[in-house]
Write a structure and sequence with these properties.
The complex is a heterodimer. By secondary structure, chain A is of the alpha+beta class. Chain A is about 25% helix and about 30% strand. The radius of gyration of chain A is 20 Å and the shape is elongated. Chain B starts with a strand and ends with a helix. Classes of the chains: A alpha+beta, B alpha+beta.
């Protein structure tokens, strides 16, 4: 059973803290806990917010007290191993890499790493990245597992506007900008998929605990997917983690 | 259509109790800054507690009504007038088509709330009518109101029963110094005892950097054990972040869903009505309390609002025996 601290965060929420580091193991525990809580039917829970190393639980104190809730949470933790946790799935995200329009910093990232642009793309598309959490802006993913070889510092001066769908690198991190936003990331490509679409039934595509794998595409496929995404008809491929990719 | 915005004021937006269930996707809760004021305004016009309202900031909007409706204005006093005549806050008002609502000047507090009987015709996005302006989500086209905007009412009412009784004493009282009650944590253990002492004994002044995301405060530096950075985790409304520099920031409706600064304490729900009305120059002292007191205050507030609603719109009578049995089951542990 994981060693969890319960901390007060005001009078209508608490933090269940699983540790003080960023690790796949802690993240897996939090994922299991969140799933177990959703199945538990504990009265009074309003919302769950999983993050790197803790899960914030919003509750209604008119329905359950802090003391009664933490007791029930301890019960869930004690039984965690017996809860069926579905295997994580992988979200495949198509990306058009490089070029002045889509990936203006790919050349710089390659030069900084002492690699060719092709090698950067091969390394970037070879990893299944764990989504530790979403935050900062709707649909923004904090991804783990990027190869050290691609580590590149942020821009000295951030761009005023980075288009939605831009795929970038900043320090050890990689990710996708879900909406237009200023930013200092090195942009290596762009996905035609809408990570955030307010018109869609599930407006935000990625989920904490899922994995993301990038797949390199060409301009023709980019335009095709972009049109389908605009029409709301494109569905990203997902597959269970561990399944061999084609 | 029902109201035309002749002048949007400083910052007027459609807000309700907030967008619940989507913080895990990075979507901020948003919603009103002073939830109690919203609920009272809605109760006065016969709406559900959390019906969407217009939140007006410091300089209120100028709105022309194109249909009749009943409204109520609560929160801070922005000096409301109807066709140039002052009208009461915390009272249901019958507004006729052709009349113009304006706000003369800020007299107290920071934000006023206008509730409209029958609610506003704004499509909910992810379950809420609140506006999250940074990501252009929800409310009126995802933004603050602008001149020329036209909003609709869902079910306007020309009249309400007992209109002249639908009023209550104004609830926002300006103070020289606001005592804001907090629960310590979650990262109070990352501050020295001296730091905690400073936080709970000094007066902090709201700077001019305050908005719907947060309130930056000026005052004595709060001492950390080892800097103000943490691995990013969740942030509740009223959380008090203290970055390494040592000055507190109260996190509010449009706060980001996760943050990497130490949080020394969190304001209790019963005192959201204070922090939702703070503006530059306001003086605050933080007072430590416990979870039992905080919960009692929260439930007392709910009770007061329920009593107000029952006084204005009594529920139809039902068979006493049946009623007792029903409630008995509800309270069973």
């Amino acid at each position: 059973m994981p060693n969890v601290r319960f901390l007060l965060t005001g009078d209508t929420s608490l933090s269940a803290e699983f540790g003080n580091e960023i690790s796949e193991e802690i993240n897996a525990q939090i994922r299991a806990f969140t799933i177990a809580l959703e199945k538990s039917g504990i009265a009074g829970i309003v919302e769950l917010v999983p993050t790197y190393r803790s899960c914030m639980i919003h509750y209604d104190p008119g329905v359950v007290t802090y003391a009664a809730l933490t007791k029930q949470l301890e019960g869930v933790l004690a039984r965690l191993d017996s809860v069926a946790i579905p295997p994580s799935d992988v979200l495949e995200v198509p990306v058009l890499y490089g070029g002045e329009e889509m990936g203006p910093d790919l050349a710089f990232v390659a030069e900084h790493a002492g690699l060719s642009e092709r090698e950067v793309i091969d390394i970037h598309t070879s990893t299944e990245y764990l989504i530790y959490m979403l935050g900062f802006t709707p649909g923004f993913t904090y991804l783990g597992g990027m190869s050290d070889k691609l580590e590149t510092p942020r821009l000295k001066q951030p761009r005023v506007k980075i288009p939605a769908g831009s795929v970038g690198i900043a320090g050890k991190q990689t990710g996708v900008y879900p909406i237009d936003s200023p930013g200092g990331w090195q942009l290596i490509g762009r996905t035609p998929v809408k990570m955030y679409d307010p018109k869609r039934e599930t407006p935000i595509l990625p989920k904490a605990g899922q994995y993301i794998k990038f797949r390199a595409i060409d301009r023709a496929e980019y335009d095709e997917i972009a049109a389908a995404a605009e029409a709301g008809s494109y569905v990203c491929r997902t597959y269970p983690r561990g399944e061999a990719t084609k | 259509m029902s109201i035309t915005v002749l002048n949007p004021g400083l910052l007027t937006s459609v807000q309700d109790a907030g967008r619940i269930g989507y913080q895990q996707f990075g979507v901020s809760v948003s919603g009103v800054m002073d939830p109690r004021a919203m609920k009272v305004a809605n109760i006065l016009v016969g709406n559900e507690d959390n019906e969407a309202v217009l939140e007006c900031t410091m300089m209120g909007p100028q709105l022309r009504f194109d249909v009749d409706n009943i409204i109520a204005i609560t929160g801070g006093d922005l000096g409301p007038t109807l066709d140039g005549q002052p009208v009461a806050n915390y009272a249901a008002l019958a507004v006729r088509a052709g009349q113009t609502l304006r706000f003369a000047a800020l007299r107290s507090g920071c934000r006023a709330y206008i509730a409209f009987a029958g609610g506003l015709d704004i499509p909910p996005v992810m379950g809420s009518r609140s506006t999250y302006m940074k990501a252009k989500i929800g409310g009126f086209e995802g933004r603050k109101l602008q001149k020329g905007d036209v909003l609709g009412f869902r079910a306007p009412k020309a009249d309400l029963p007992n209109l002249d009784q639908r009023r209550t004493a104004p609830e926002f009282a300006p103070q020289q110094e606001y005592a804001v009650r907090v629960l310590m944590g979650p990262q109070d253990d990352l501050f020295t005892p001296a730091g905690i002492q400073t936080f709970l004994s000094e007066t902090y002044v709201v700077t001019n950097e305050f908005d719907r995301m947060g309130c930056r405060m000026e005052g004595a530096v709060i001492e950390h054990v080892n800097g103000g950075d943490i691995i990013s985790d969740g942030i509740a409304f009223g959380a008090i972040q203290v970055p390494t520099a040592g000055k507190p920031i109260i996190m509010l409706a449009d706060r980001q869903t996760t943050g990497g600064y130490t949080k020394i304490a969190n304001v209790i729900t019963a005192d959201f009505r204070i922090i939702g009305q703070l503006k530059g120059g306001d003086r605050v002292r933080f007072v430590k309390t416990d979870i039992e007191t905080a919960r009692a205050e929260l439930l007392a507030e709910r009770d007061a609002l329920r009593k107000l609603r029952e006084a204005l719109d009594p529920a139809p009578k039902s068979e006493p025996k049946k009623e007792r049995g029903f409630f008995k089951n509800l309270f069973k542990k």
